[in-house]
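Archive entry. Fields below.
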Amino acid sequence: MTRYSAWSLLRAGLSGQKNWAPAWRDASPKAGYDAVVIGGGGHGLATAYYLARVHGLRNVALLERGWIGGGNTGRNTTVIRSNYFFPESTRFYDFALGLYEGLSSELNYNIMFSRRGMWMLAHDRHGVEMLRRSANAMLRNGAAVEMHDGEEVRRRIPGLNPDPRFPVIAGLLQPRGGTARHDAVAWGYARGADALGVDIIQNCEVLGFDIAGGRVRGVKTSRGDIACDRIGMAVAGHSSVMAQLAGFRLPITSYALQAFVSEPMKPVLDTIVLAPATGVYVSQSDKGELVFGGALDLFPSYAQRGSLPALEQAVAGLIDMFPQFSRVRMLRQWAGIVDVVHDSTPILGESPVDGLYLNCGWGTGGFKAIPAGGYCLAHQIATGTPHPLAAAFSLDRFRTGALIDEAAASGIAH
Amino acid sequence: MLLIDCPWCGPRSEHEFRCGGESHIARPGPPENVADGEWADYLFYRTNPKGEHLERWLHRFGCGRWFNIARNTVDHRITAIYGMTDPKPEPRA
Amino acid sequence: MSGARCDGGHAIDRSRPVNFRWAGRDYAGFAGDTLASALLANGVRLFGRSFKYHRPRGVIAAGLDEPNAIVQLETGANTIPNLKAPYVELYEGLNAAPVNAWPSLEFDLMAVNGLFKRFIPAAFYYKTFMWPNWLLFEPAIRKAAGLGRAPEQADPDSYAQASARCDVLVVGGGLAGLAAALEHGRAGRSVLIVTGGAHWGGRLAGGADVIEGANADAWIARALAELAALPNVTLRNRTLATGSYDHGLVSLCERLTDHLPLAARRGPRQKLWRVRAGRIILATGAFERPLVFSNNDVPGVMLAGAALAYRRRHGVLAARNPVIATNNDSAWAAAFELADAGATIAAIADARPAPPEHLVAEAKRRGIAVFTGSAPEKAFGGKGVHAVAIAALDGAGRLTGAAQRIACDGVLMSGGWSPAVHLHSQSGGKLALDPALQSFVPQSLSGAPSLGAAAGDFSIANTLATARGAGAKIANDPVRPLWSISRGDDPHADAWVDLQNDVTAGDVALAARENFRSVEHLKRYTTLGMASDQGKTSNVNGIGILSDLLGRPIPEIGTTRFRPPYDPVTLGVFAGHRIGDGLHARRRLALAAAHEAAGAKMEEYGGWMRPVAYPRAGESEDEAIAREVLAVRNAVGLFEASPLGKIEVKGPDAARLLDRIYVNTVSTLKPGRCRYGLMLDENGTIFDDGIVTRLAEDHFLVGTTSGHAVTVAERLEEWLQCEWIDLEVVTQDVTGCWAVLNIAGPLARTVLEGIESDIDFGREAFPHMTHREGRLAGLEARIARVSFSGELSYEIAVPWRDAARLWDALLQAGAPHGLSLFGIEALMTLRIEKGFLHVGSETDGATQPQDVGFAGALAAKKSDHVGRRSTSRPDSVRDGRRQLVGIAMADGRPVEPGAHIVRPGAEGEIGSDGWITSAAWSPTLSAPVALAMIDGGFARLGEDVRVWNLGQWREARVVEPCRYDPQGARLNV
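PREDICTED_STRUCTURE:
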């Protein structure tokens, strides 16, 4: 693997940028592997990387139907934060945040993790009480947050509407929150996994599973059958489709979540702001685009495309926060397909089929979890037991009722 | 934006409706005869097909009636609209 | 100086000069000019600086495919960043400036980036800026990025939205669109035809083509006149189709006032149209592709079709002495027409070894030098091109032999034409490669056919025939594909593909070398096609270069997805009326004016503007609340409770339905009596609570919390219509029909007895938890003796219109007894003193009845109800669930709701035992009162705990939730 640095760029500059090696090999599938990861998004690639790096498994294949990073990893608003309500969630997302903070250096790939802070606003008395409840939960769970009154929020976020429809009474800041370059996360993990010997196989669609006696024996793909008795699936958005191939159902419904970017502009917003009243959140990318999103489209969908109603609502919410953006123009809209579960908490661990493990149910927040989701799925695949950080996220909670209802508890959409 | 042909009011824009999710889910009971797993299945587990989905919608800002539709979840094409007590339509690709 | 005005120009009015300002200097153009045409006419070539390397750039296109000439229009509140100069209509006083150049366009300090270009190719930032971390470098990168500046003031303009239906929507006002509109309009169908620009006729207007025997302008004028005369046809110019969405919905953005001087603008600035059409005809035209050769970004290098458009529309020669470089016929025609308008064509270079004879002959006749089988190798010039090198191509399309340098003031290029397939593709239409055009053309799409150049048909006759349903198969002369022009196999690192994002052919090669070979990877890695022109000039060239590099055919490479909008759209137009109160209506109480007159402080609670309290002069809010609470405890208070949900449930099966809805049994209730009930969702979570009243054997009034009236009404209907369809019940939400006043306090009965009524308010005649209908102060009234304050209390409902009369009657009768108005915070204090549950404060998405003291109700219920099964799951019956308790603060000071509760000794551990759900200062007890949900709370009464709030620790004790009149004696007075 060519090590990336300012020096390597300088050298390459003198030789016309000709000496770069592929960031990862295009591998062809072998007849069998020690472990197979289905899904070439951030979670799948991270899983493959940690299988190799943490667990020493090198005979690993990652199967991707299209091109890596092409699902939700490449279609989100890149927000990373760990300001959750319940300890199980905060611990898990805080672990992810910690890995993110060291990821560029670990992978020798600049994922541009930008610690610009994330604000959640409160609009009325009840909202302030709920925000304080969340702030204290986060502090008790070890996530550093600050609570400020409306005046301080407006001082810290220049340009915030002084007289919005939904007043800003208070704000909760997680200074460690931020954004990252989403594609780079996928590519960095791919390059890292490839360097450790993982076969990254693109254009390889999973068509079915070889299951005998309730145990997985292999996977059938568009590029041939692969024998393997330890398989992890990380195909959020399409988890139900994959589960159906393995003969079971999941407590998941797929919805389209849209995101929008404006034309690029000089820096005007140096943080991330979420207004719970409208569900709209916005940040400005390093390229200068306003990146914003809002609520889900309201019916089940596998269509990765935008629609007008969600766009109109999101823009209206954005303009309530920042009325000066009304004259700015929208450049693009798109949608990702997200796994929605009842309690807004992921599913990580065993499936009804032995040897087939789940990483799904991320709702609208899968990107921020990528390092931890991959780390824990790798642990599950390698050891056959759940990682302690993910133990509460088992599928069994839907039977026992031990749900971890983040959205309902904090009043904040996840 | 979907255009939904309400059986009572005719074609109206998505704005007027609310999707109630998968239809034809039988409520198990009485409670003392329902196992935890069966109850979880009823509450949470869904077919979630990539393709034709039988789902119920409410004409919320209209007649206030619930009805069923068959809708493709990939291209959102609606292939059947039928009443709550009507039988399921023939499946389509 | 290069460009100049020539004759012609169908769009401009030479009798109306227009003064404008560009980059701080004053210029003049004509009405009908665009900013780009007027600047070109004034000889301006330098329009901007590129995104990354800050290279000097000129205009290359004549429409919204323009990647370079990006401007900041106007200043202050009216400013708009990133507009495309060829699409900005000139108006008197227009003031525009380039973006991304500092201190000036002529001298841009960031141009130093260009010197380091070889070291900072595409995606270089993924490989560096990692030590010590990205945060060190990011601020400088951010400052350098971005194009224009965001407005800093609120938008002074308004935006409109509308919906429209028609039989046929024709997108595009060129020949194809006009012909299609005529065809359908004559057939009597309702037709809406839109064009994005100001003018009709597309590329043909102002030209020399002959259409059905007429000169092009005459044909267009005749078509427009006929369409305008048809009552079933609507024409809208300045109306751009921006997106195609589900079920055939097309969004249009109409620019209503952008072309007018600022002072002359009235009404909405732009309008969003949502159009549903039976049939959508896509006559969106085609985009010309640049040629990718070294220094092809020097100002003065321009699309040949754009030069022709400036000549036809605006009477402007973009160059007076240009070289034409092409791989197809279209640029030859442009050359001849420009020559006719006064340009001296320095040379024509065609990549094809044998262009059509008649073209070569015509060039020779005009004395124009012709280079066949040749292509431009390099443009020379800094802020304006002054020469171009032309060299021969070998059979593989590589430059060979010596180049000839030709002096010129412009290079007009054509790399072929790509149909504008955006809307087709957004509609779900498939694309195929046309081998003659070397571009993607739409495959037939039912209900939304493409026509004319948008379908890859560049023949006037065939387009007209197709519009009339009699077209032949399209036959185009083949272009010579020439994706990037260089001497070796390696694409040139100074040959630009995406001009706005500064992506070169060399960058595409770098991406391929590093295995970013999927077209989506190429796009994301190099940012090719992601600029504000959405890759209109660059996408196909990028795909072509990748195809050459990988040795794989173009169809195998495919395209990236076409995402709306077609061109950037003003955000305000999507918001429309949804600004301020239009975003979310504030609901006003029946007596809103009376509360305001009485000095109430109003705030929004659950969508309703409600009185917080009624502070008197010199009184703080807390003091007012305390006074109001004591008034209710000691005398009598009046509170408007109109938002309380009221749902009528009637029918022979009404009781059966409500037994299935409530945790509590409802069927045993006697008519005229009330019962408190809890509703769950199927997951066993407390969803709502309230008073249910049996008005008659078959008739109930379901009371809900203020925030949940609509949702509860909808859920009842959902159960009735979808699950229990055999039940004979009707429901009606009557919340907005009845205004409700709550009179509470020990003197409440005395006050009511002072008002004329046919109802006996006597203690025995009208006991607690009963309901009476009758007349009060001459008004029809429904009165329930129920209490959320713990005092003697009546909720009096009268028709909404009668609220003020009831209010007056109560105030008048109450005055002698010291009746006091009280607001919602006093009510909350009263209920917290009593330990009464408030759904949404004490309860969350995990709270079940047994957690808040209703295990008995669950056990007593003999039949199934919504959510019942969920309350017996393993997690529902485990020990240690969070349970409702009271919290007494040791220091006697109030506690903040949202503070957390921690076991002594566990301060250093992660997590907490629960949290304060509600808290208030109790003036009744002269002590703070609080409710909390804590783990295993029922068993912890009397336990000392610690309270954590934002880093502060305090001491407290777990107590019973009810702190006042636990026996309820005051309810039964």
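CURATOR_NOTE: The radius of gyration of chain A is 21 Å.
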